[in-house]
């Protein structure tokens, strides 16, 4: 496919890196300041530099607040049979359609783990999208990790709060965990190794186990042992559950404000 990427910042750039490594599609990036692009990518600074080219996919990866200003310049560059794909948080199909008209539009919500090919994305296709168009974009997103198709846009906003914003929460939890290990006397590098290897190993063990997370937690918690002493603090007054629920609710509410 011939794909135009509008905006090549942190998220668009991470996905582009995976796509160019696969080498299956042709990419043009429209971004006034993009640099360090792979050799195979064509770069333009603005829509007028595109001349009369038309694309199979126009992928919108600019900030939600810029879409109304920037997207009108690109509304005409999609082939009749093409697909608009937006990764912008919140921005609804209806808002996009106000700019590009009654077109095949998909909302994809990726996450930053795409940087290492381990992203997880949600995908919603409006009813103008054919099964073939959906299949093509699912295959494209699969090249950045895993793609989960959802039935409605609200699911995309909910998924944004869980996995789209998820790396932000996880980076913060890791920072705090490493800081706590340092406070216990480990140097920074050792603390990072202990925490990162504990987290990746535990996630993989959970993924491969048939036990529930509660059963797995209990399986490593000796009666009156060290883990129980730690968990008594971590689980005190359900603070962790309450905090994670309010964290996800706040992100979901913000997605609604960006519609
Ligand atoms: N970051 C993340 O983890 C995720 C982000 N998203 C979504 O991805 C989108 C992009 O986010 P993110 O990559 O973080 O943001 P960035 O600011 O890193 O990327 C946006 C890019 O668009 C460029 N840009 C600015 N003006 C224009 C223009 N007129 N035409 C074309 N490009 C332009 C910016 O250039 P400059 O920097 O010079 O202004 C920048 O390179 C957002 O809609 C966000 O909701 C979705 C999931 C996860
Ligand atoms: O913070 C944001 O709004 C974007 C969308 C999901 C992750 N980053």
From TrEMBL:
Pathway the protein acts in: Amino-acid biosynthesis; L-proline biosynthesis; L-proline from L-glutamate 5-semialdehyde: step 1/1
Family: Belongs to the pyrroline-5-carboxylate reductase family.
Protein name: Pyrroline-5-carboxylate reductase
Function: Catalyzes the reduction of 1-pyrroline-5-carboxylate (PCA) to L-proline.
Protein localization: Cytoplasm
Enzyme class: oxidoreductase
Residues annotated as domain Pyrroline-5-carboxylate reductase dimerisation: 153-258
One Gene Ontology term, aspect cellular component: cytoplasm
Domain Pyrroline-5-carboxylate reductase catalytic N-terminal residue range list: 3-90
GO molecular function, one term: pyrroline-5-carboxylate reductase activity
EC number(s) per entry: 1.5.1.2
Binding site for NADP(+): 6-11, 61-64
Main location per the UniProt record: cytoplasm
Catalyzed reactions per annotation: L-proline + NAD(+) = (S)-1-pyrroline-5-carboxylate + NADH + 2 H(+); L-proline + NADP(+) = (S)-1-pyrroline-5-carboxylate + NADPH + 2 H(+)
Gene3D superfamilies, per the entry: NAD(P)-binding Rossmann-like Domain, ProC C-terminal domain-like
Organism: Yoonia algicola
């Amino acid at each position: 496919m011939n794909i135009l990427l509008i905006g090549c910042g942190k998220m668009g750039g991470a996905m582009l890196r995976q796509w160019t490594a696969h080498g299956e599609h042709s990419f043009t990036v429209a971004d006034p300041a993009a640099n360090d692009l792979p050799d195979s990518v064509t770069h333009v600074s603005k829509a007028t530099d595109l001349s009369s080219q038309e694309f199979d996919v126009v992928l919108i990866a600019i900030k939600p607040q810029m879409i109304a200003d920037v997207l009108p310049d690109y509304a005409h560059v999609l082939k009749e049979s093409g697909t608009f794909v937006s990764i912008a948080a919140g921005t609804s199909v209806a808002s996009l359609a106000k700019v590009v008209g009654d077109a095949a539009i998909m909302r994809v919500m990726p996450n930053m783990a795409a940087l290492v090919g381990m992203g997880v994305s949600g995908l919603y296709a409006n009813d103008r999208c054919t099964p073939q168009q959906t299949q093509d974009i699912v295959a494209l997103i699969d090249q950045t990790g895993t793609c989960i198709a959802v039935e409605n846009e609200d699911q995309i906003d909910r998924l944004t709060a869980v996995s789209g914003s998820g790396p932000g929460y996880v980076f913060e939890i890791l920072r705090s965990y490493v800081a706590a290990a340092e406070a216990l006397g480990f140097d920074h590098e050792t603390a990072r190794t202990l925490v990162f290897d504990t987290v990746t190993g535990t996630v993989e063990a959970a993924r491969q186990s048939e036990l529930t997370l509660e059963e797995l937690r209990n399986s490593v918690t000796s009666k009156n042992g060290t883990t129980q002493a730690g968990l008594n603090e971590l689980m005190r007054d359900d603070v962790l559950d309450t905090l994670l629920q309010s964290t996800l609710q706040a992100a979901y509410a913000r997605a609604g404000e960006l519609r």
